[in-house]
Amino acid sequence: MRNLNDFVVFAHVVDHKGFAPAARALNVPKSTLSKRVAELEKTLGVRLINRTSRRFTVTEVGEDFYRHAAAMLIEAEAAEAIVKGRLAEPSGTVRITASVPTAQMTLAALLPPLALAYPKMRVMLHATDRFVDVVQEGFDIAVRDHFAPLPDSGLVQRRGATDAIWLVAAPGYLESRGAPPEPSDLSRHDGLLASLTAEGWTMRNDAGVVVRVRPAPRFLADESHVLRAAALSGLGITALPRKLCRAEIDDGSLVRVLPDWEAGSVTTTLLMPHRRGQLPSVRAVVDFIAEHLPAG
Question: Which residue numbers delimit the HTH lysR-type domain (predicted)?
Fold first, then answer.
C-alpha cells in the first residue's frame, strides 16, 4: 500500500516551491522531506522533481501527480474541518483559480485585504485563461466572469455581482464622427469588437426595449484591456464592463455612448466543489469575495 504521507509531503514541497521553504513551514528537517520524496519517486518509478543546488523544477508527470495529491490533501482537510465543527477559525490554504482579466480587474484589490482579515489563512491564486478542472486540479474556488449563464457542472455556484456593459468612445472620435443619437445609428460607426464573427451588441434601455446593432468592424481583440486601449486611442466605439471604464469616464478620457442604453451585463460567480465548500476557510473566502465585489 502506498504511503499517503509521502503524497502530502510532495504536495507541500511543490506548494512551497522547494524543499527548504517547505521544511521551514512544516518544521521538519529538509533531509527528511527530500528522503520521503525520493522514496515516493522510487515507489512510482518516475522522476517527479528535478533538483540541483540552484534549481527546483517539477517534471511534467510531477505536475499531473501534484494536482491529484493536492486534491487529496484538500479532501483530508475538509474531513478534518467537518469533525472540528463549522465554527473553527478559518486557517490553512485556500486555492483559487480565475481568468487573467478577472484576477486583474476583480481579485487584485480583494485578496490582500482578505489575507489581512484572516492571518491564519494562506491564499493561493492561479490566474490562467486555459480550461481548469476545479475538482481534478485541487482548487477550492473558481471565480468566473461570464456574459451568459454558466452550464451545470456539478459545482456549487454562488452568484456575486452583476455589472452593466456600456458603450464608450474617446471624445476625439465622437467629435469627428458625431455621437449616435439612436442604437440604429451605430451601423455607421467604427466598432471595436471581440471577434470578426461577433454579431454586434444587444442593446436594452430602461423601458425594456431590445435592439440588436452591429457597427462596422474596425478593430478586433478578444481582450477587454486591449479594446479599452483602442477606444482611448480614438479608433471607434467599444463595449466594456462598467468597472473597466468607470475611471476613464470619470476623468473624461472616455465618454459613454447612448447613456440610456446598456449592451448586456457581466456576472461574477464563485464555484466550488461541494465537500470543499464546507471548509470554514473556503466559506470565509467565498463570503468575503461575494460581499466585497465591486458593483461597477
Answer: 1-59
Select from 136, 132, 138 the least CA-distant residue to 103.
Answer: 132
**How confident is the model over 202-240, as pLDDT tens digits?**
999 999 999 999 999 999 998 889 999 999 999 999 999
- Say how far residue 253 (Cα) sits from the centre of its chain: 28
Global pTM reads 0.64
Q: What is the pLDDT of residues 263-294, one digit of tens each?
A: 999 999 999 987 666 678 888 999 999 998 87
Total residue count of the chain as it appears in this document: 296
Domains and CATH numbers, the chain: 1-86 (1.10.10.10), 163-266 (3.40.190.290)
Q: Over 60: is that where the pLDDT of 181 sits?
A: yes
CA distances (Å), origin 13, targets 56, 124, 163, 266: 10, 15, 40, 38
Q: How far apart are the first and last CA of the chain?
A: 54
Quick one: pLDDT at residue 136? 84
